[in-house]
Design a protein that fits this description.
heterodimer, A: mainly alpha, B: Rossmann fold, GMP Synthetase, Chain A, domain 3, 2 domains
């Protein structure tokens, strides 16, 4: 897998994070949305650890 | 980041697990700086510690600078806890309402230390275990039986969630007694299991004696992950477990305060890979504190969990003793190996008759002899000015005819492994203490006068 492919994955991971954060911001008083979105963000962090962090390398 | 010759379906993350060591190091330093800044900004405890040392996160620019960061010891965590924000004290880096998991250490070395985790940290725990389970061959077709009490100690909790993450089917074996667990493993044809070495051997014993079940012949478990005590990295203990179950037995090392930082892979290379993706693992000379980068010298493990946020683990002095292996692993991972696993704890390795001895070396000697039961006890006392070491053993009933030969072999093995002579006491079979989960076989009575 090359750097371009990893950047492609990173872009999509960023999109998931951004969308989920927006959803959290929109959900108002719906705990079902807010708490499930929080869980999604925890999983997104695992994707970032495994993939996005690689782009810290020169 | 091309990896020519990458083995197929061996790695949880094939990119990270085969990065050249210099790239891993680069990644670790960047992530170390990130978690250091995180803790400095949010944890009064860490900021205080670093300010007292005249250190700011910006001072860390290279791997060599990491050593400047003061170490954290368990006792320091004990001192700051049971205070606000209750009960964790001021090392907590998140609002209390973000903590979703409470665990605590076992308390064998003193008052237990509390460990808070956010849901993200809990995902991280299962991520670390996913690396190790995948390395040990767990796959979606595995049915994993976990004979664990699901209690306040972190133990196999993350193993449960990681097995789910990997896609296995998980059978929680808490509450059931040992016989019921064995019968459930048989009924469901479980293919994998997680337990302490003491319990693995104990289950096999119970299966044969009380249920007439030979685990190797009658059960379908083919891989076992051990944790909680050293046994699975002691070759003779590992062999006893593998022979008893007809399964491969793999070791793993972790701690409540740190995470699951080391694991054996299916190649069983005579040591444990350190997870270089999630942890920065360093060896320091026990006496001088000098960093040990090369094989051949034992040192104390000082470790940082690079992504753990609620209560960061930064330059934690684990007191575990290890040495680097010189050999690469056939699995292809570039994660370094600690040779023979964790060989002891800095506070367990002790001088007896002028010789440094780790209890695990004695276990290796005892377990290498056929005809002895799984239980033994070591008692060290003082007779006048001289150390005296007694080894209590049991000879298996059907090996009694061979007693003198067995004792001879035992003496040879102990001399080979520990360079010491022992008073050997043969006790009636099944008279020595039996342990359910973790054994306490080494008793140093010299400390008590």
């Amino acid at each position: 897998m090359n750097r371009r492919e990893i950047k492609g994955m990173e872009a999509r991971i960023n999109k998931i994070r951004k969308t989920t954060e927006e959803l959290k911001g929109l959900c108002g008083a719906i705990p079902a949305v807010e708490r499930n979105a929080a869980r999604i963000l925890a999983s997104v962090k695992m994707l970032e650890i495994n993939i996005s962090d690689l782009l810290m390398l020169k | 980041m091309k990896n020519p010759g990458l083995k197929k379906d061996v790695y949880w993350n094939p990119i990270v697990e085969t990065l050249p060591l210099e790239k891993l190091r680069e990644l670790q330093v960047k992530k170390f700086k990130r978690i250091l800044e995180w803790a400095y900004e949010r944890s009064k405890f860490h900021r205080r510690l670093y300010q007292e040392a005249g250190l700011e996160p910006g001072d860390i620019r290279s791997y060599e600078d990491v050593e400047k960061v003061p170490k954290v010891e368990k006792a320091m965590m004990r001192d700051i806890q049971r205070k606000d924000p209750f009960p964790y004290g001021d090392a907590l880096c998140v609002p209390l309402e973000e903590v979703t998991e409470f665990r605590q250490t076992s308390g064998t070395t003193g008052r237990p230390v509390y460990q808070p985790d956010t849901w993200q940290d809990w995902e991280w725990w299962s991520e670390a275990w996913a690396y190790l389970l995948y390395a040990q061959g767990y796959r979606r077709m595995d049915r994993v039986f976990i004979p664990f009490g699901y209690n306040i100690f972190v133990a196999f909790w993350a193993g449960h969630y990681a097995a789910e993450k990997v896609g296995c089917e998980v059978v929680p074996g808490g509450v059931l007694d040992t016989e019921a667990r064995i019968l459930k493993i048989q009924e469901l044809q479980a293919t994998a299991m997680m337990a302490t070495p003491t319990y693995v051997l104990g289950m096999a014993d119970t299966a044969r004696k009380k249920l007439g079940i030979d685990p190797a012949r009658d059960l379908t478990v083919r891989r076992i992950t051990c944790a909680g005590e050293p046994g699975a990295s002691i070759p003779s203990t590992k062999k006893r477990m593998e022979d008893a179950w007809g399964a491969k037995v793999y070791d793993h090392v972790g701690a409540t305060e740190i995470g699951a930082w080391g694991f054996e892979c299916t190649e069983q290379p005579g040591g444990l890979h350190v997870n270089e993706a999630l942890f920065l693992t360093q060896l320091e000379d026990i006496e001088t504190g000098e960093l040990i980068e090369d094989p051949g010298r034992k040192g104390k493990i000082v470790i940082t969990a690079l992504d753990r946020e609620a209560q960061p683990c930064i330059r934690f002095d684990s007191k575990d003793v290890a040495e680097w292996s010189a050999d690469p692993c056939p699995c292809g991972r570039t994660f370094r190996i600690i040779k023979g696993g964790v060989v002891g704890r800095a506070d367990d390795i002790t001088k007896i008759k002028g010789v440094l001895v780790a209890p695990s070396a004695i276990e290796e000697g005892v377990r290498a002899v056929n005809g002895l039961s799984n239980e033994f006890e070591i008692v060290v006392t003082k007779k006048g000015d001289l150390d005296d070491i007694t080894l209590k053993i049991e000879i298996l009933p059907d090996a009694e005819g061979n007693r003198e030969a067995i004792l001879g072999q035992l003496r040879d093995q102990l001399r080979l492994k520990t360079n010491l002579g022992y008073n050997i006491e043969v006790h009636p079979y099944q008279s020595l203490p039996r342990y359910e989960v973790k054994a306490k076989r080494f008793k140093d009575l010299r400390k008590h006068g």
